[in-house]
From TrEMBL:
One of its GO terms (cellular component) is cell outer membrane. It is a multi-pass membrane protein. SUPFAM superfamilies: Carboxypeptidase regulatory domain-like (SSF49464), Porins (SSF56935). It comes from candidate division WOR-3 bacterium. Its main location: membrane. This is TonB-dependent receptor. The lineage of its organism: Bacteria, Bacteria division WOR-3. Residues 117-221 form the TonB-dependent receptor plug domain. GO terms for biological process: siderophore transmembrane transport. It is found in: Cell outer membrane. Keywords: Cell outer membrane, Membrane, Receptor, Transmembrane, Transmembrane beta strand, Transport. One of its GO terms (molecular function) is siderophore uptake transmembrane transporter activity.
Length: 715
C-alpha cells in the first residue's frame, strides 16, 4: 500500500545536516559570478552563479571555516555555526585586495539548479529557479528536471503524478521535509496546491532506491523542502486569477533565537470546462484547501525538536455537469469529498559526533461521495515510527508501520498490513587506491511485511570528481506493495468514467535500475555553463496493469481489471540538459530525453511519452526593470488507447505537439506583479464522445489557451 514500507528521515540521499547559502557581491553590490566557496578541512565546495548566489551543504552540523575567493579580490574566511538541519544565510561583500574585511548580511534567494553534495545523484531545484521559469506549483517545478513528466492520468481526481524516466507515477516517492507523505493521494495534492513561493527547494533522486527510502521509490524520490523563516516576522501571500479558476496562498513565519514557527494556508479551485458542449466536463472541477504548520526548537547543537501537521479538504466533481440532486441518477456524474490530516514529530539528539533520532507520524484520509450511482466510502489510517543512529562511517535504523484501509468498491471488509524495516548504510566512505576524489555509498534494507513477506533491497552509488567534471554511477532495487485508493490509474485512458476491479491476489511490484551520468561546469567572468548527460535502465517485475474487460451493465461504465503481468517491463533512455547564465540578466536552459518503455516482447507501453524537448529563457530587461520568461515544449508521441463504442480498445500513436508559455513580471518593492499566457498556440485535443456521450481524452492538453494574473507580497 502507498507509503507502506518507508524509511527513516536520516537516510543518505536526503540526509540533510545543514547548509550555508547567500550571495557574494562587490563594493557596489554587483554580483560576483564564479566566486569560489569551500569549507576548510572538507571536500565540500561550490561556486556562485551569475546572480552571485550560492548554496553549500555541510557534511555535519557544527562550526565551519568558510573561504570566499574571487580573482582580483581579497579572499575572506568566515566562521559559521550550523545547527542540525539549519540553513544559515551569509551574504558576503568582497573588497579589492587592499581593502578591509567583508561585511556579512542576511539574504535569502539562490537562482541556479545545482547538484547536491551527496554520493547519490541528487538534483536540487531552488525556489528562485522555479519562479524564473514561470512555475506556479511544486508539481510544475518538479517538471523542470530532465526526464520528469508531470502527468494527470486520473480523470476522477485531477491529481498530478511525477513520472520519473518513463515509469508510472506510483513508483515515485514524495516526501515533505524528508517525511514520506501518507494517505493515498495526499502527496499529489501537495504537488498541485503548494505554490513555489512557499518552497525553499526541491531535491530529486532518480533510480530504484528501496534501501534508502523503502516502498514506492522504484523510479526515484522527490523531497519538498519548505521555506523556513529567518527573521522575527515574515509574511508572504500570492493570489492568481486564471481563466478557469483561482489560487491563493498565505504564509506567516517567525524565527527568534532557538524557536521557529511557520504557518501556511492554500486554496485552489477550478471551474468545469466543456469544449464540445455535450454536458460532460473535460476536466475535474474542484475546490481544495490546505493548512500546514511547522514548529522547530533548537536549544543548541545537542538536540533538535520538530512538530508539524497539516489538514486538507476537497470537493471534486467529474463527468456530467449536474446539480447535486442528480448524482445518484446520472451514471456519468461523480462527486467525492475528501478530508485528511497528518501529524508528525521528530527529535534528534547529538553527542560526541554521533546522532540519534526518533520520528512518529500519524495520518488519516476519508473519502465519501457518489461513484457509479452508488454511495462511496474509503478510509486510510497510518501509524508510522522509526529510530535511527548515525556514526562516523555508518548509519542504521529500524522502522515500524501499521496501515488500515477500507474501500467500498474494492474490499468487503477492512484490510491492514504491518511492516518492520531494518536498514544499514555506509557514510563518507573512500578508498586510498582510487586515484581521484570520490564518495561511495553502500546500503541494504530488510523489510518484513505481514502480507507480502520479506523484501531485501541492496543499493550502491559512487561519485567521482576527475579534473574534467563529475561522474555518477548507481545501482539499486525498489519495490511497491499494491495500493487500493485511486492508485494504478496511470494505466487508464484518462477523462472518462470507469469502474475499477482488482485481482484478489495482487502481489508487490519490484524494480531494478542502473544509472550513469556525467556533469561539467564551465565558468568565465561573464558566463556560467552547466552540462549534464545521463543514461538509465529500469526493469519492473510483477507490473500491475489494467485491462478493459467490458461495459458494466448497471452503470454503463468501462470496467478495468487490475492484475500482475507475468513478464517484466523495461524503460531505457538518455537525458541531456544544459544551462547557460549570462551576467545577471539572462538564463537559458535546454533539455531533452529519449526513452523506450516496453514489455518483454518489445511492444511499447501505452501512455508514456517516448521523447521530449523543452527550453526556458529568462531575461531581465534593464530599461523597464521587467522580467520576461518564456518556456516551451515539443512533446513526442505516445501509444494511446481509445475505447470504441462497442467496448473494443484500439491502439494508435499520438501526434507530436508543441506548448509555449509567456510571462511578464515586475517587482515594486515588496510586491511582484505577473501576467502570463499558457499554451499560447491554443493547442488542445478535441474531446471524443463514446459510450453514450462520455468524453474521453488521452494524450494532449484538454484546455487550450489560459490567461492568468498574479500578485505576490513578501514582507
Amino acid at each position: 500500500m502507498r507509503g507502506l514500507l518507508l524509511i527513516v528521515i536520516a537516510l543518505p540521499a536526503f540526509a540533510f545536516h545543514g547548509a550555508i547559502r547567500g550571495r557574494v557581491v562587490d563594493e557596489q553590490n554587483q554580483p560576483l559570478a564564479g566566486a569560489q566557496i569551500w569549507l576548510i578541512g572538507y571536500g565540500n565546495g561550490t561556486a556562485t552563479d551569475t546572480a552571485g548566489d550560492y548554496f553549500l551543504e555541510v557534511p555535519m552540523h557544527g562550526e565551519f571555516r568558510v573561504v570566499y575567493q574571487f580573482m582580483g579580490f581579497k579572499s575572506e574566511t568566515l566562521t559559521v555555526s550550523v545547527a542540525h538541519g539549519e540553513r544559515v544565510r551569509c551574504d558576503v561583500r568582497l573588497h579589492p585586495i587592499s581593502l578591509p574585511v567583508p561585511v556579512v548580511e542576511s539574504r535569502e534567494r539562490r537562482q541556479t539548479v545545482q547538484t547536491a553534495a551527496t554520493p547519490v545523484p541528487t538534483v536540487v531545484i531552488p525556489q528562485s529557479a522555479a519562479e524564473q521559469a514561470g512555475k506556479s506549483t511544486v508539481g510544475e517545478a518538479a517538471g523542470m528536471e530532465t526526464g520528469i513528466q508531470l502527468q494527470k492520468r486520473c480523470s476522477a481526481c485531477e491529481a498530478s503524478e511525477v513520472s520519473i524516466q518513463g515509469l508510472p507515477g506510483r513508483f515515485s516517492l514524495i516526501l515533505l521535509e524528508g517525511m514520506p507523505l501518507f494517505a493515498g493521494l495526499a502527496s499529489r495534492y501537495i504537488l498541485d496546491l503548494v505554490p513555489v513561493e512557499m518552497v525553499d527547494r526541491l531535491e530529486v533522486v532518480k533510480g530504484a532506491s528501496g534501501a534508502l527510502w523503502g516502498s514506492d521509490a522504484v523510479a526515484g524520490a522527490l523531497n519538498i523542502l519548505l521555506l523556513q523563516p529567518a527573521r522575527p516576522l515574515e509574511a508572504r501571500a500570492t493570489y492568481t486569477r486564471r481563466s478557469f479558476g483561482n489560487d491563493l496562498a498565505v504564509q506567516l513565519g517567525s524565527a527568534r533565537n532557538s524557536l521557529g514557527l511557520s504557518l501556511m494556508g492554500a486554496h485552489s479551485d477550478r471551474e468545469p470546462v466543456d469544449q464540445n458542449q455535450d454536458g460532460i466536463a473535460e476536466n475535474t472541477f474542484y475546490q481544495r484547501n490546505l493548512v500546514l504548520g511547522n514548529f522547530n526548537y533548537y536549544p543548541g547543537l545537542i538536540w533538535r525538536f520538530n512538530l508539524g501537521g497539516s489538514f486538507g479538504d476537497e470537493i471534486r466533481r467529474s463527468g456530467a455537469v449536474v446539480p447535486d440532486t442528480e448524482y445518484m441518477s446520472n451514471p456519468l456524474a461523480e462527486k467525492i469529498k475528501t478530508r485528511r490530516w497528518d501529524l508528525w514529530q521528530r527529535t534528534v539528539y547529538t553527542t560526541e559526533g554521533n546522532e540519534f533520532s526518533c520520528r512518529i507520524a500519524l495520518s488519516q484520509q476519508k473519502e465519501t461521495g457518489t461513484v457509479e450511482m452508488q454511495d462511496y466510502f474509503s478510509q486510510e489510517f497510518n501509524l508510522f515510527s522509526d529510530f535511527s543512529a548515525e556514526f562516523p562511517h555508518l548509519r542504521s535504523g529500524i522502522s515500524l508501520l501499521r496501515q488500515q484501509v477500507q474501500d467500498s468498491r474494492l474490499f468487503s471488509q477492512p484490510a491492514h498490513e504491518d511492516n518492520l524495516g531494518i536498514w544499514v548504510a555506509g557514510r563518507e566512505i573512500t578508498f586510498a587506491f582510487i586515484p581521484v576524489a570520490h564518495e561511495i555509498l553502500p546500503a541494504v534494507r530488510f523489510d518484513l511485511n505481514s502480507v507480502y513477506g520479506t523484501v531485501i533491497s541492496p543499493y550502491g552509488a559512487i561519485k567521482l570528481f576527475p579534473s574534467f567534471g563529475e561522474l555518477n554511477f548507481s545501482a539499486g532495487t525498489g519495490f511497491r506493495t499494491p495500493t487500493v485508493i485511486f492508485e494504478s490509474m496511470e494505466n487508464l485512458p484518462g477523462g472518462f468514467q470507469y469502474a475499477i476491479r482488482r485481482a484478489p491476489d495482487l502481489s508487490r511490484e519490484t524494480g531494478l535500475s542502473l544509472q550513469a551520468g556525467v556533469g561539467r561546469r564551465f565558468i568565465s567572468p561573464e558566463l556560467i555553463a552547466d552540462f549534464r548527460f545521463n543514461i538509465f535502465r529500469h526493469q519492473v517485475r510483477n507490473f500491475i496493469t489494467a485491462e478493459l474487460t467490458g461495459i458494466d451493465t448497471f452503470s454503463r461504465r468501462a470496467v478495468f481489471y487490475y492484475y500482475n503481468r507475468n513478464e517484466p517491463i523495461y524503460s531505457t533512455g538518455i537525458e541531456v540538459s544544459t544551462t547557460l547564465s549570462v551576467q545577471n540578466h539572462t538564463n537559458f536552459s535546454l533539455k531533452g530525453f529519449v526513452l523506450r518503455p516496453e514489455d518483454h516482447a518489445h511492444r511499447p507501453l501505452p501512455f508514456v511519452r517516448q521523447w521530449g524537448v523543452g527550453y526556458n529563457l529568462n531575461w531581465k530587461l534593464p530599461f523597464w526593470k521587467v522580467e520576461l520568461n518564456t518556456t516551451g515544449e515539443l512533446n513526442g508521441p505516445m501509444v494511446i488507447q481509445t475505447v470504441m463504442g462497442g467496448g473494443m480498445v484500439v491502439e494508435s500513436e499520438s501526434p507530436v505537439y508543441p506548448v509555449f508559455n509567456l510571462r511578464l513580471s515586475r517587482e515594486l518593492g515588496v510586491v511582484r506583479f505577473s501576467l502570463g499566457i499558457n499554451n499560447i498556440g491554443d493547442y488542445y485535443q478535441l474531446p471524443r464522445s463514446h459510450h453514450e456521450g462520455r468524453t474521453e481524452y488521452y494524450w494532449g492538453p484538454v484546455i487550450g489557451r489560459e490567461l492568468y494574473a498574479a500578485v505576490s507580497i513578501a514582507l
